[in-house]
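Lecture notes, unit on binding sites. The following record was shown on slide 14. It pairs a sequence with magnesium ion.
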Amino acid sequence: MNLPDTLNLPDYREQSPEVKAAFDRLKGRPEVIRVDHLVKDFPTDDGMRRILDDVSFSVHKREFMSIIGPSGCGKSTVIRIMACLEELTDGVILLDDKPVTEPGADRGMVFQKYTLFPWLTVKKNVMFGLEVAHMSNFDAERDALQWLDIVGLEPYADLYPAQLSGGMQQRVAIARALANKPKVLLMDEPFGALDAQTRAKMQAYLLQIWEKIDITIIFITHDLDEAVYLSDRVLVLKANPGKVQEMVEVPVPRPRGPEQFLSPQFLSTKIHLEELIHPSAEESKDDFKVVNMVATGDP
Ligand SMILES: Nc1ncnc2c1ncn2[C@@H]1O[C@H](COP(=O)(O)OP(=O)(O)OP(=O)(O)O)[C@@H](O)[C@H]1O
Ligand SMILES: [Mg+2]
């Protein structure tokens, strides 16, 4: 990153007393979800390939944690395993200290691709999970309208998904996931398909919702600004196989706003994440040498 030397940023590990106190409070809260020594192998043409190797981390109640890492490092696989949409090879996922073995309403998911049912109205989409859970039609409709109100879409309740913009459809997807009252919301690049302006609005919406309700969020993104802006902590994975590289505590105080994108704490954290994800040319050259030595057998 080409930043002037004169910028003189603080170390990303430096925390103001307020931020430090906020982290002490966060770490004092119970762990909602714990990923313990997770291993995942996928079959390939040449046999089994290790995708995730001994990945461990935990997320506290009401925490906002992002996961970043190079493409293919296994981010989606980690949260698909948490949701039990994928089996694990070894290790355990604990939700409130109990191993998870099947998908459940306690883990809501929002994906990058719009996943609303096109044949159902916005309201019926949000009611869907509630009706599957045998809530009466009257209660499901009331709850759905309340959630649509929270995401600012109550007036659109009777429209169909195709009549909404991409950002609005993602807000409905968030309302649908939250309506089931999950303990954890798992979000896989939910704003990845949106234009920059809509994306910025959605980030602000999500922070507002997260501040309003009792929810723990795990959020995958490729966008470092988004990770720093939204998160308490950022889990950085490295690839081949996917491993935990670092858990970074974001020293930017809350409440947050877009004006903080240029604050010294914000920039120093973003630069650190950038360095973890894209090591300097010098280090990459060393990696390349090691790979070549292994490949050729040269000392
Ligand atoms: N069902 C599957 N069968 C075989 N290999 C798979 C399967 N699903 C994922 N993989 C492989 O596992 C690795 C991790 O995939 P994953 O989708 O979790 O990565 P990611 O970090 O989410 O990538 P991206 O940032 O591109 O979304 C990739 O090499 C992928 O090809
Ligand atoms: Mg992915």
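Take-home: Residues 42, 51, 69, 71-77 surround adenosine-5'-triphosphate (ligand 1) (CB under 6 Å).
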